[in-house]
Amino acid sequence: MKKIALILVAMLVMTFVGAFAAADVIIPPDNDFYEEHADECEYLDRNYLTMGELNLLISPESEIKQTACSNFEQLHVQYTYTDDNNVVWGLVVDGYQESLGWFRLTDAVLKYDNISFMEEYDSRISEYTESTPTFDNDEVLFYTYPNSGEYNQGRSTSDAVYEYVFVDDAGLTWIYTPYFQLQEGWVCVEDPMNAQLNSAMLVYTAQEDPTPDTEPDPTEEPTTAPTGCSSECGNCSAYIWVACIVGVVVIATVVLLVIFYGKKKANKE
Fold first, then answer.
1. Of the residues 63, 65, 149, 182, which has the fewest C-beta atoms closer than 10 A?
2. Number of domains comprising the chain
3. pTM, whole model, 2 decimals?
């Protein structure tokens, strides 16, 4: 019985390790056109903002509408596809990796993000060679990019690996980690828990300088439609599945241990 218990425990540990590894696996969207043209699609994983009402289509080769989006909505584009006319299309997914439809990338603007920041300030970003700093209670805010106003709260321990460093115009030092405990982003070394570090105005960049009828107000927050056009967490579904799998294995392990040891106790009596 002890061997069975050890095997069950080992299975539980392997499930935990495998599950968290799976959380970083890219989950392909459930979209017929993507499945047929997967080899022609490129992974993007960036956000766009609508500049007016926009209809997402079931495919780049169809005019059938799948999802309607209003002005200044955030669209999470997971994959792109370039058609025979060199028009680039984006496949939008929601927070659960469900496909919402396709749109021409020139019909929206690319939201300024960490990739945009690192390209713009490349000459001021250098390799971080110092030891990992310590923070009170290991608590920090991981900003999307320095002074972005967007962040996730997390922990930074001595195991954290920071790759880049940037000093902003106010003299604050920021260090960047591409991945630590499911977090990515920039930490302000001098003020790691300050949630008020943001630029006076958000900046957006357009791919081909489209001229919309109405420009989005950069001071506004993107709206989140009931259809799920907006998406801040492209891997939410992966983490949900991880939690479900781990929960099932834990319950099954406990039940089996109770049954085995219950039988063993009954046999002794």
1. 63
2. 3
3. 0.70
